[in-house]
Amino acid sequence: MTSFRFTRRGLAVSALALGAIGLTGSKLLKEPDDSLPKTRFPEGFRWGTATSAYQIEGATAVDGRGPSIWDTFARLPGKIRDGTNADIADDHFHLYKEDVALMKALGVKTYRFSIAWPRIFPEGRGTPNPKGLAFYQRLIDELLANDIEPYATLYHWDLPQALQDRGGWQSRDTAQAFADYTAHIVRGLGDKIGRFFTLNEIHAFVDLGYGKGIHAPGLTLAAAQLNQARHHAVLAHGLGVQAARANGRSGLKIGPAENITIALPDVETPQNIRAAEHATRELNAAYLTVMLEGRYTDAYLKEAGADAPRFTDADLKTISTRVDFVGINVYGPGAFVRERSDGSGYAQMKLPASYPHMKSPWLGFAPQALYWAPRMLQKLWAVKEIYITENGTSAADEPDEDGRIDDLDRVMFLRQYLDQLQRAINEGVPVRGYFLWSLLDNFEWADGYETRFGLHYVDYKTQKRTPKLSASFYKKLIERNALV
Ligand code: BGC
């Protein structure tokens, strides 16, 4: 007899009942068929993984590397949640060959890593340290030998301490020092790397490090100084692009890797979409907007008032030097917005206390961010080449008794986010590649090692790497160039 039952979770139908109406068994339920046509990602889409120097390299005192602001900050009591530092981290400096082999096994064709400025210029500027550059030459050779294209980020938060001692990002000189460092890198490595990112997430490192004081160097500046530090960082980006073009080989490509604050329309009506576009432009006014438009928005300047940064027209021209592509790091929802009922712009909604998030409380689950973020780049600034330079999630990864790490939540996250990325690509948004954060569990800044973002589990006592379930998921996806 067919039996239906309503439970708190919905309609439950007994297996016996399904059998009776013929819905079980091999006749109707087919195995997934690999040969059926699928919605694929574009041919040549670049699948990759991402890391950053300070989070994985370790070897902080090897081969002449100078101290960075993170070495100093991590030693201040109470700054890193588990009291650790990145002196060893993943020991990637020594284990890089093994890590390239992990990438090869995944099937990625691109890798985004960062160069540690204090390895190259231990004092921030002045005399370069050839042994520092030699490490990246070894890494790049290994990548190329494995048919993996290197994409290098020039700055991922590890400012040489010597520059911080002279004012760090509060000093305009740091922007020029960044340009000099960039010139040195493209001269030294530019024959083997064609693509560079300037600064990773200006928004994050300035606001968390100089505003909230929860990242290095741990300052809590007043609004005027904070705005000035932001200005110096976007100026560094522009000067860096110019220095790379002036000193690199022809064909070199360069762009930012910014964590766009993405405003999402709550319900996709034309009005709300307009409101979200408006909000996205304003919420990124001091970062991507000024980089891509060469002006601070009127609303930004008005709101900052006397605290607005001091700048010249020439600065704005430099900041908005043409880039070859734009990289964006996409995690949670920046904001949910709707159009104001009087049509005067946007209203930001409060996130309900019950809104779902991943292991990190800041990482709200919003797959549609990976649809809207690149779409906004195309709509607001007509960007022609877009990279998702980071996307991924923390998870409470624990090996089971067999040593397996079945990170089902990370797989769920990736599947949903990538589905939305595909939606954007299918609509013609020019996304050319995706770098999953991260290849390995690593030093997650102020969270230390407690928070894991990797496709590979790292046992920090032995440095053993173990692929998680998400690594098999990503491998299969890359192999088929389609969601699985
Ligand atoms: C940063 C990474 C960081 C990741 C997860 C990004 O903001 O670029 O360095 O590990 O987010 O928090």
UniProtKB/TrEMBL annotation:
Keyword Hydrolase carried by entry: yes
GO biological process, one term: cellulose catabolic process
Active site (UniProt): 201, 390
Transmembrane portions of the chain: none
Catalytic activity: Hydrolysis of terminal, non-reducing beta-D-glucosyl residues with release of beta-D-glucose
InterPro entries tied to this protein: GH, GH_1_N_CS, Glyco_hydro_1, Glyco_hydro_1_beta-glucosidase
Molecular function, one GO term: beta-glucosidase activity
Enzyme class: hydrolase
Residues the entry annotates as binding substrate: 55, 156, 200, 331, 437, 444-445
Keywords: Carbohydrate metabolism, Cellulose degradation, Glycosidase, Hydrolase, Polysaccharide degradation
Pfam families documented for this protein: Glyco_hydro_1
Record's GO cellular component terms: cytosol
Entry EC no(s): 3.2.1.21
Family, per entry: Belongs to the glycosyl hydrolase 1 family.
Protein name: Beta-glucosidase
Native source organism of the sequence: Reyranella soli
Gene designation per UniProt: bgl
